[in-house]
Amino acid sequence: MTKKKPKVRKSGRREKSPDLVKRVAGLKRPELLELWASIEAKKAFDWPPGKAFELCILRAFELEGAEVHWPYLVEIQDSVVEEIDGFVQTERVGFMVESKDLSDAVGIGPVAKLRNQLARRPGGLLGCIFSRSGFTPPAVILSTYCAPQAILLWNGNEIADALKSENMIVALNQKYDWLLRMGLPDWEFLTEENKEHDNVHHN
Fold first, then answer.
1. How far, in Å, are 31, 58, 147 from residue 27 at the CA level?
2. For residue 122, cis peptide bond before it (omega within 30 degrees of 0)
3. Residue 202 predicted with pLDDT over 60
């Protein structure tokens, strides 16, 4: 008697938010910046918690020319085993997305979750965690020791800077270069203008 092979839906199934995806996928850059401003002001009242932030990140990459796969579910034998916040493919790298718009810094949970998702995929795939509230020290430490899986951590300041200046892919490449050279996942991208502002603020 031959065993049946597990039924795996490789491409994934769209998460149950097609109207929200359609709403963001049609935004031009000025409209995306308006949505981002409402997120920063915590006034995205007509959105499920964290969803506007999640989709805004993906649309920002898409507007810069990246190929984007909107949030989807991965099923094995008709059971949902993964909920993916998105997948982005640039000319240089592809990466899985985990987005968190919380009031507190992100702990080790999302890092461990993304590491496990990366572990069951081919090597060379990158993971990016976007958190407007930053990360706890344990989360940073854990992401430093995820090799051979590679995870980049994006905090709120650099996300805002890269999104507003149309430098999401530039930031991605610079953060990835730093990870390759130094083995550190949390190098912070800032444009020169904001670096100067940050220096003034801290001096």
1. 6, 11, 37
2. no
3. no
